[in-house]
Amino acid sequence: MQKRKIILTTLVALFSTSNFADEISTTGQNTSPVPAPVQEHISRLMEEDMQFNQSQRLLSQQLALAKLRLEMAKIKNEAAELNPVSAMPIMNDGPSGEEPKTESAPVDEPRVMMLSQIAGITKAAVSVGTKTVFVRIGEVFSANGKRYTVHQDKNGQHSYVQEISR
Fold it and tell me: Do residues 29 and 22 lie in contact, with contact meaning Cβ atoms separated by under 8 Å?
């Protein structure tokens, strides 16, 4: 009788552990990854966020460019108000056979219009007649047959052009 109890107990134990292992394997299969619709939604949100950030950067760059253009226009208007150029011909009382002479504009000395600092390099926009030249501080450039250089004061707030003696 004792043999029967031992055999019966071992059989019950074997069958119960195999069922327990089956339950563990079936519950392990139920833990699947995040469903596909949720993944698609998260992916779409991330793409929209990236597009928004790109658009925001583009608009901020365009705004900064528009502000710089407006500032340049103001500077040009102020410069035009300070230096009115007269292109009126001078009338001579001499013989009528001569053509009227136009007044030759004096040669304008170069002057600093603005400073820009990009990537740690400071350059000055120097107005030479009707054209603008960008030069580094201390760099020698030629204008009107003379050599010039751009300097800054000790505070670095004011810039000026100085002719270099030969």
Answer: no
Phi and psi at residue 56, to the nearest 5°: -65, -45
Tell me how long the chain is.
166
Task: Write down the residue that tokens 């000026």 correspond to.
Answer: 160
Using the structure block, give the residue that is written with the tokens 């219009």.
113
Distance CA 112, CA 133 (A): 10
| Pick from 153, 162, 107, 154: nearest CA to 135 | 162
Cβ atoms 147, 128 nearer than 8 A: no
Closest alpha carbon to 151 in 127, 122, 129: 122
Among residues 110, 154, 105, 99, the alpha carbon closest in space to that of 132 is found at 110
Cα separation, 137 vs 103, in Å, equals 35
CB 102 within 8 A of CB 87: yes
Tokens at residue 158, please?
Answer: 């004011």
pTM of the model: 0.35
Asked whether the beta carbons of 128 and 143 are under 8 A apart, the reply is yes
The neighbour count for residue 133, using CB atoms within 10 Å, is 17
Q: Which residues contact 26 (CB under 8 A, 6 or more apart)?
A: none
CB 131 within 8 A of CB 118: no
pLDDT tens digits for 122-162? 788 888 878 888 888 888 888 888 888 988 888 777 788 88
